[in-house]
Amino acid sequence: MTHALRPIHRPAAPLAVTPLSRGMVGRTLFAFLAFVAVTLFALPLMAASSPLRLRGDVTARGDTLNLGDLVEGASAELAARPLFRAPALGAVGTIQARRIVEAAAGLGLTGIETGGRVQVSVQRAARRVGPPEIEAALKRTLETGYGLDAKTLSVRLDGEAPVLLAPVDLDGQAVAVDVTYDPRTRRVAGLIVLGERQASLRVVGLALETREVAVLTRSIPRGERVSSADLSLERRPRDAVPADMQGAPSLIVGQVAQRPLSAGSVLRSGDVAPPDLVARGDSVAIVFETPGVSLTLRGVANESGRLGASVAVMNAASKKVLQAVVVGPGRVSVGPVAPARPVLQASAVPASSDLD
Fold this sequence. Notes:
Distance between the termini: 145 Å
Number of domains: 4
Structural class: alpha+beta
Number of strands: 23
Helix content: 10-25%
Order of helices and strands: HEEEHEHEEHEEHEEEEEEHEEEEEEEEE
Strand content: 25-35%
Shape: elongated
Radius of gyration: 46 Å
Largest sheet: 5 strands, antiparallel
């Protein structure tokens, strides 16, 4: 026979609250102070016991390399101790790992983990002032000291792209001082400096006046129109460009090549011309105008011509050939042969007209 089990219920005992004695408070306070003391004593030991590791390749920003530059994990006081001289500005050098370990041992540090490195590569950081900054400094001085227009100047420096190396913390604009310029030979020389001559480099070169010219970006066959995409503006030495060169793209775009033009060539005045508005064999409107007469006849162009050009046209009715001036697309104008004739009325047609 199965009976359902009932949980056993026991009356809950009342909670007993024991008041704190002075001895218990003293023991608790003593334990807390002991914990604080042990913690303060153990932290330096834990920091001192942190592993010392050889750093990888490093970059030096000053003249010397401190212990902290080469070894991580050292205390702040020891990390600031100088060990080796850094390479020259912009140069790269190496230090044997064993020499770093030996130098650290001299400071009382042992057990440095090298990670299998045999040597450490050290690069000296440097600010590089290249040809563009050097040229800009010379041009500013030539403008203020010699009255030259910096916008039309180009300075060609002698040698292979001179570079001024300076400490990375030496900021500010490069300045050209002690500049000399000979207008006859156009030779220029000067000293490029940073700061209070904390870094300097003497340079020489040739100062050339330049002109802005239109240069073709692609080859264009004869008779093809020039578009804005076919042109680029470049500054070329004034003496190296022809006197009749073209420099305003707005005057060139839409004109037609008069001969095959190669990419990279400087456009001259005869290279392009406005397009023909009248083509040989086209039907044209022949306009005859005087103060009292305005006539329009149909004709055929015997020649091609651009705006303002004189072309031969034939009157389609009389087959007479006339000399006319192109005044628009498919439109030419002829004037009276004898200006002394009486002015005709608009409704009158001369018995013998040159248009017939």
